[in-house]
Queue: 2 jobs
Job 1
Amino acid sequence: MKEPLVFVGACDWAGIVRGKGFPEADSAIRLKKGVGVTHTNIMMSCFGPIYTTSFGTAGDLIIRPDPKVRIEVPFEDGTAERFYLGDIVNTDGSDWEYCPRTFLARGLKALAKAGLRLVASFEQEFVLTGVEDRPGATYALDALRRQGAFGETLMAALRTAGFTPDSFLPEYGPRQYEATVAAEEGVRSADAAVVMREMARAVAWRTGQRAIFAPMLAPDGIGNGTHIHMSLWDGDRPVTHDPAAPYGISARAAPFFAGVLAHLPAICAFTAPSVASYYRLTPNRWAPVYANLGIQDRGAALRVAPLFPTSPEPAADQFNVEFRVADASSCPYLALGAIVWAGVDGLARKLALPPVGAEAPLLPRSLAEALAALEADELAASWWSAEAKAAYITFKRAEIAALGDVAPSDVCARYAAVY
Ligand code: GLU
Ligand code: MG
């Protein structure tokens, strides 16, 4: 005998979906009431323990399920994934500002005040265990074949979960694959990223495998990136592109991306938030090293993606800029939220893009450097209260301290066990 359980979770500061389950029979009431959590939950480290907390043992909050992110995916073995993603709110239903999903939603509201909305798509790389690694497998049809039913099951799971799978491919690294979900509006694009990670884990788990999203499995290995493609829209009109403008980026959208470049060191604290993230952001990995904008350059932090003139889609609809400094140790809501807040600042201050080919500053070289940049970025204080910002920095510094002087290969192993 079995009684279906439904889980309500939020993707937290550590980028992990945590929450609570309840009998499906109670869904109607739980949709209203949510599930209870404490304030300190947000400070659970990626490794498990609470190393530091601003809240102690006091207080109650609710994860309020979003009925639009209801996942019900049955698998052939008779089991199913049943969960909701939601917001962490106060018990009276009001916003709790430490909630990552709310952090993004507030940023998007500020962007809407500037008359713009954001459409984004997350492209995520991971390593699939259990696949035979053979020489010459990079991007090979044979590597696609050797992952068996994983990819097709993942595509079906994503579609059943209410999202649109865009692609699945064998990547460059050993046993490395990549899946992309089609672009979605604002918060839903980050929901899609969270669901894609969970569905990949869910499908892998059912065959005794793991989909490992950690940024690097070995310090000198191939990185797993999370690339975020973005375009700005004014109502139904795409407004990112102007073929005559530098980089092809319109005067309307340019300040947004200039803001992202200006705040990039601080943004790294959210998009590349693990110690291992910085083994990936090193030369010759097709990952960024500079806070730069490049046209069709996969080594750039921001890459103007190519246009395909033979596509039936108009150029203005296709045009997007890809943010490449993220990995899957990030919480998609915090990562995209930080990008949006930085873009909003760029728009407010009418920042200009650097001239094409200009020299760019280096990205932070470590999580400690990124956190110092976040601490020093005065503007980042307006994204969040001083308390929330300080708590996040303390939370991440505790993660660095917990690793102590562990060797880089063990650091990779620690994160690979988690993500
Ligand atoms: N694996 C690279 C990264 O870490 C990206 C390779 C690609 O361009 O797809 O970001
Ligand atoms: Mg890739």
Job 2
Amino acid sequence: MWKGRFKEQTAELLQQYSESISFDWRLWRHDIEGSIAHSAALEAAGLLSADERASIVAGLREIGGEIERGDFQFKRELEDIHMNIESELTRRIGDPGAKLHTARSRNDQVALDLRLYLRAESDAIVERLAAIQRELVALGSRHSEVIIPGYTHLQRAQPVYFAHHLLAYVEMFQRDVERVVDCRKRINVLPLGSGAIAGSTILLDRELVAQLLDFPAITQNSMDAVSDRDFAVELLSALALVAMHLSRLSEDVILWASSEFKFITISDAFTTGSSLMPQKKNPDVAELTRGKAGRVYGNLVSLLTTLKGLPMTYNRDMQEDKEPVFDSIDTIKAALAVFAAMLGGIRANPENCAAAVGDPNLLATDLADYLVNHGVPFRKAHEVIGKAVALCAERRCELTELSLADYQALSPAFEADLFEMLTVENSMAARRAIGAPSPQNVAFQLNRWSSRLGNEN
Ligand code: ARG
């Protein structure tokens, strides 16, 4: 492609080192789409005849068809997807092919391809986030009556609906959706027409290209357009947060499926056995997903580090952007899909949940609130109930087993009705503020999300 300036062939060792075709071939569809739009601008500028453009478009479509069928032979010596396609096009159609790269550089071409690719993948990821949200809502709805202990510090804290816990993740994934959708706006800007760095002396209609490729905006500085990848960093950062949320959900699933908790059972299809221990049923999907957060974070740091310190504008370092980007997208798409499928096969174990949530200590805060409702300042009430808990620990009994006299010895504000209110059901019913898990609120939220996400009921 640059034979005019050089007397020697590129060293074999350099070809191996610098090729990107082994991974950027994946951009083929976008590269062809971009070239077809570019050829329209060339024709509009009178640089291609209608016939020449028609042969370019037909040639590109033919090459695209072969790549799609796996019949296309990529050449490493042609370095990347852009040169592989252009060179094969010219081999097939001759001169018109040699005109395609007019007023274009691989620098604006690769920026375009990456944006087109990330735009499509953002949409795919948003769909998969919605799918996992749907499964979380469905799982909560299948077990809408189940109450479990909620934890802080992994110590039993207060009772919550199982569905409330799952809906917490639905909210998190919704913010992930919003981040991806927002970042897509900055991906969705046309860089083509920026040339290598300073546009071109040949004037092309960028608005026409933007319209053909469905870009609502056009980059306004040619140097910026070929040198930054901040839009990819943003998406990788949004994906790192998806990975973080998936990893925490994984941890909950792993704990809940353990013999110590037994709150849920995962279907056989989404668990694995042990080659040695016959009794084992392992939550590998959740473990792998928790593990994959590492590489998704790594990809973000890798791209940030590649870009830092690069002088304006394009530098070959930037070819290192693709593998981390592809890897995070592949990893997150796979994790979301397999996790959603696994959630579909999860059943809660209501008896075990009920046994765990039957721990009267979970109602200690409710007892303090009882005293507040009887005129005791909260700090004082907290201390009184703390003493009641200590007394239980001493006597090896539960809060429900202390007598009214025991309670009244701790505070005269206690009355006989305290035992009636001391139930999980009362505790849940009282939590009526917006965002709190009263049965009405949780049912409302399950309904709200079901209709918003299009769950089938
Ligand atoms: N393979 C290159 C990349 O991915 C394409 C751009 C090459 N531009 C250049 N001036 N060498 O970044």
